[in-house]
Fold these 2 entries.
Entry 1:
Amino acid sequence: MNASKITCKNVWKIFGSNPKNILKNLDRSLSRSEVQEQTGHVIAVKDVNFSIEKGETFVVMGLSGSGKSTLVRCISRLIEPTTGEVIVDNEDVIKMNSSELLHMRRHRMSMVFQHFGLFPHRKVLDNINYGLEIRGMDRKKRNERAMEVLSLVGLDGWEDNYPRELSGGMQQRVGLARALAVDPEILIFDEPFSALDPLIRREMQDELLSIQKMVQKTMVFITHDFLEAIKMGDHIAIMKDGEISQIGTPEEIVANPVDQYVRDFTEDVPRYKVLSAGKIMRKEISPSTEKLFKSKTNIILDNVKVDDLIEKIADSDTPLPCCCSKSGKLLGEIDRSIVMRSMISRS
Ligand code: ADP
Ligand code: MG
């Protein structure tokens, strides 16, 4: 049994006139640009392997041209991989016939694009209920559902407007609502916030995080922005020239970048944004902490980010929090000076 929601095994995508033949005779020591020079073919995705757990947000991060969009389009077969397996719920998407594929795309997956991809001649409500309409749901029902998700993305009152009457951020809320309307198991985001101003962008990130807390979908989120990646991702895959350089939690990647390419992204990340309480806590437990824990005050989970701890320790009159696991076991205590140190140190 395969416990993961999406698994890619040895996925390749080569663009050009004879990709299968190129792959068969490929000298794997050649770089992507050498292959392109010698054969005129582009290796967009090179032997990619990963697994995505149900309910997690999996970020694919890398510079422009690194193969992110191509890779993620292979999951829904918007792009046909040259070779490889794409397993969704134990079923190989590559082996699906066209009606199975259509069914999967209509019922189980939704996509949100960088440039919103809204229908300009449809009102907001009719944009949102588009996926339900092509499924054949009657108008009354689909409008009800569309109003529900409209509210979820904070656009109450805008249902009768046209996309052009909305700001960029609001248009992307419509894009998000349209994707959520069909209640898919998998949501795919291709740089959804890259076209937005920084403030709006941050607002949308926070909003998506809070929506994800509620809906707990399996999300695949592409970005070229590392700070966005560590904010959004449970796991991050970092791509370079079609290959995955590293996969890990934000904390793992920032703590142990595998090479210079990854290190360059991590260098400007403040440590407190990725370090969790469990990593910085003191493991010896003092009697006063023990007492605090028993009285059930000031307890935090070990996966809370140091960034979110700062507020809790700022007031020197309140006792310092103790740290426990999800299952409720007391693990350690938080010291004000450790938090401070983790905020100023970079390694
Ligand atoms: P990213 O999304 O990371 O910016 P892409 O997946 O769009 O990267 O592109 C990866 C590489 O594949 C790039 O070099 C791009 O030029 C190339 N590529 C993408 N689509 C095609 C295509 N249809 N034909 C030829 N080359 C393509
Ligand atoms: Mg792209």
Note: The chain has 16 helices and 13 strands.
Entry 2:
Amino acid sequence: MKIFNTMTRKKEEFVPLEPGKVKMYACGPTVYNYFHIGNARPFVVFDTLRRYLEHRGYAVTFVQNFTDIDDKMIRRANEEGVSVRELAERFIAAYYEDAAALGVRPATVHPRATDHIAEIIALIQKLEANGLAYATGNGDVYFDTQKYRNAYGKLSGQNLDDLESGARIEVDEIKRYPMDFALWKGQKPGEPAWDSPWGKGRPGWHIECSAMSMKYLGETIDIHGGGQDLIFPHHENEIAQSEGATGKPFVRYWMHNGFLNVDNQKMSKSLGNFFTVRDIREQYDLEAVRMFLLSAHYRSPLNFSREQIEQAKAALDRMYTARDNLAFLREGAVDRPADETEAALMEAAEASLKKFDEAMDDDLNTADAIGAIFELIKHANIALKPGCAREAVDAAWNAFTEMTGVLGLVKPASKEDDAEVDALVKARAQARKEKNWKESDRIRDELKARGYIVEDTAAGQKVRKA
Ligand code: AMP
Ligand code: ZN
């Protein structure tokens, strides 16, 4: 697989540090609000990367943090008259719900900054010992960028001179140089605080990711991801802290997704041009949002509009129809060798799997991977009829479920759901046999209320998701 590495600005062959294992970290949400569709992009992208790496046989350990202490958390908690911890609890629960509706699996670990204060303090002490951090005496501790001059800026391709000329020190900061950044912040009135060697205070933002990445994944990891806005200063600072402490490379492959835009402007909470995933959920199945987010390459900018979501929904519907067709055909399949058309489909299924892998191997080209799924659907529609050879329909089914599964699309119908729908369909077949049209229509309406559409075909009833 090739991955575009932000550090080298090149697509590179992906070789994990340890054969067969991948250690990856993605910067997660600050939990002071519901997340918006822009935030959803990295969640969906890195979930898909993880699924694909697993499909390629890697054992993946995936860490995604919750930032549960920062200025925004404190402000919002004060506004609402709740503790920062309570605020975090609420929006972490909401994260899990919204992420699940987007088909985003929970990471292996979701560490929270405030549960890792000891690790954070230890890391800052290590930086102090290495001469890379200084305490100001008022409870703050800063990273000393001057002592790290030569290595600072390599991810974002900037040097300290340029950065310093454009920066200034805010009045309430007692730091030595403009690009120095807070590792620890002394307590201000009304703020939550933890004991530390520098007095009561709380961690700065960047340090949590260094500390938690090292704790769960080790000093050097394979992949670190996030949105492009994190390249500078967040990831630059993570590198300075981590490599400054250990002297070892922190990350082998840096991956950054492009922005989700509204009218060519980044969707963001501060600009107010955002739609939370909660809002959108009232109108659209979030699976359509996942489809939309995967319809473009993850590094390209992507413009949000309702039409785009509608288009994604239509494409997703075509996938569901294909799944239901295949499921229906499998039920009536016959154990016989494939005929010529069916044999051609079996080859097409192989070919689509290969195309899918090639697309995903090319820096996670999900757009082309979706194309490979539609090619398979086209071939299956041509080749398969009721009474088709089992080996042919199975080949198409297996390829289809494999590919959609890697993209986290097309949910398998739940067993419970299946059994109930099955019972209704059987009851309806009986009603029709008895020419009890009223009952047959009643059951059709009941299925509809459950989100299934039933059609009467020459081969019997055909059920699909609405
Ligand atoms: P935050 O909660 O703001 O720290 O953001 C969580 C994740 O969402 C980070 O990886 C950000 O880079 C990413 N992100 C924020 N806004 C956008 C956007 N408009 N498009 C794509 N990614 C974004
Ligand atoms: Zn981070």
Note: DSSP finds 15 helices and 15 strands in the chain.
